[in-house]
Design brief:
Blueprint lengths: L1 H20 L9 E5 L3 E3 L4 E7 L10 E4 L2 E2 L4 E2 L5 E9 L2 E2 L3 E6 L8 E6 L2 E3 L3 E8 L10 E4 L2 E2 L4 E3 L4 E10 L5 E3 L3 E6 L8 E7 L6 H14 L3 E7 L11 H7 L6 E4 L3 E2 L7 H8 L9 E10 L2 E10 L7 E8 L2 E2 L19 E2 L2 E5 L7 E2 L9 E9 L9 E8 L5 E7 L11
Parallel strand pairs: 2-9, 11-18, 19-20
Antiparallel strand pairs: 1-3, 3-6, 4-5, 4-7, 7-8, 7-9, 10-12, 12-15, 13-14, 13-16, 16-17, 16-18, 19-21, 21-22, 23-24, 24-30, 25-28, 25-29, 25-31, 26-27, 31-32
Helix pairs in contact: 2-4
Length: 427
């Protein structure tokens, strides 16, 4: 019996030893992949490393994969830009993915160039410069610009006289090298400056309860500047209704009364009496001059007025139109009022209506084409005749003339009374 037990113990020991020797020694193995860089430029190398779970470097025994394709060794580079997925295998274990990005290498900044906007300008205008590197980068903010050999501050330059400007720039790159651009030329055209006025066309009516607001706003503008030309276009059930205004109302998209347009293409902001809105109108009398002047010679005899309108061009123009109005002042008629202006009375008894449109002397309220040459120093003139109706007081008649461009913007305007001779207001 003892011999049997001894034999069983020996057999059991042998069986245990044999099973232990046949176990998978890698069953608990893990592997981690790393790279000395996670971003590189194309054609630069990365070196991959594999580490087992005990922190041992097993790079030489691991297999590395890029986008699931095995590579030879542990050094990799890419000739194309993009993000690549890296992993490693070791003794049956697979690492988690590692993303490595290859970028296009930047082009060194070795030269610069200058552009100007615009490339041709009228005297008094502003040039804006841009400086670009050969690699496409903008270095405008860190460049110095030169106009006719003199350094300027910033990247803008206000022209003063006609002629040709030589413009270049310098820039110091990251290596401390001073780069100088090729020189470009900008032509500055000769111009003539004229006094500038704002045109206000007031769509109104004696029946219109809120129209006194615009009338009062016009008074506020007049208090700040004399460079304002006003036309009051009465509509509706009104003794001064002007039936020929429909085409203009359609053009501006008139939606209600009162409506006031500045230089025909900008609606006067509500409420027109606010400080900001008054400034909106007044500010249009300053700034860049349109380089166009208007003058009139008017003669009134009896009930016939002759108006000779002249336009002088301070630069080259095209596609211009002329509008000529006959107006009447000092028309007394009660005005409906739901505003606080003029004492808040409703109606305003004996209200004085001025600038009332009585006739359009040009062929259309939308303007008639200015013919002939409209280049620098040219003049255009045309005479108009106004047969004053019996219901219009000849002594209260005034005339308005203004020039509009292809966008229907009034470039400049002028008004004149009867028997008045004007000259161009050249500044």
């Amino acid at each position: 019996m003892k011999k049997i037990l001894l034999a069983f113990a020996i057999l059991s020991s042998l069986i245990y030893t044999s099973c232990s020797g046949d176990s998978d020694s890698g069953s608990g193995t893990t592997v981690t992949v790393s790279s000395n860089f996670t971003t590189r430029y194309v054609n630069e190398n990365i070196t991959l490393t594999a580490t087992d779970g005990d922190g041992n470097n097993v790079t030489s025994e691991a297999v590395f994969y890029v986008n699931n394709t095995a590579i030879s060794g542990n050094v990799y580079t890419s000739a194309t830009a993009g993000t690549f997925v890296i992993k490693a295998t070791y003794e049956g274990a697979t690492s988690q993915n590692l993303n490595v990005t290859f970028n296009v290498a930047p082009v060194p900044l070795t030269s610069i160039s200058v552009t100007s906007n615009p490339t041709s300008i009228d005297a008094g205008g502003v040039l804006n410069f841009v400086c670009l590197g050969n690699n496409g980068s903008s270095v405008t903010a860190t460049s110095t610009f030169y106009v006719n050999g003199t350094a300027i501050t910033g990247s803008s330059f206000t022209t003063t006289t006609a002629g040709t400007l030589d413009i270049f720039a310098t820039h110091v790159n990251s290596l401390g090298e001073t780069l100088t651009s090729p020189t470009i030329q900008v032509v500055v055209n000769n111009v003539i400056n004229f006094n500038k006025r704002v045109l206000i066309e007031d769509f109104t009516g004696t029946w219109c309860q809120f129209c006194p607001r615009v009338s009062y706003a016009i008074e506020l503008v007049h208090a700040q500047t004399s460079d304002v030309v006003v036309t009051a276009i009465h509509r509706g059930s009104d003794p001064y209704n002007f039936t020929g205004a429909t085409a203009l109302e359609n053009q501006i998209g008139l939606s209600g009364y009162p409506t006031a347009m500045l230089n025909r293409n900008t609606e006067w902001n509500y409420p027109e009496t606010s400080t900001a809105s008054v400034s909106q109108a007044v500010n249009l009398t300053s700034g860049v001059n349109p380089k166009l002047g208007v003058a009139m010679e008017t003669t009134t005899s009896g009930n016939t007025s002759t108006v000779n309108v002249k336009v002088k061009f301070g630069k080259n123009f095209s596609n211009l139109k002329l509008v000529v109005y006959a107006l009447e002042d000092n028309l007394i008629y009660n005005q409906t009022n739901s505003t606080s202006y003029y004492g808040g009375a409703n109606p305003i008894v004996g209200f004085e209506h001025d600038h009332v449109l009585r006739a359009v002397l040009s062929s259309s309220i939308l303007g008639e084409t200015i013919t002939g040459s409209t280049n620098l120093n040219d003049e255009f003139s045309k005479s108009f005749t106004y047969n004053i109706p019996a219901n219009v007081n000849a002594s209260n008649v005034r005339f308005v003339a203004f020039v509009i461009d292809s966008s229907n913007k009034a470039l400049n305007s002028r008004e004149a009374g009867p028997n008045e001779t004007q000259s161009f207001e050249i500044e």
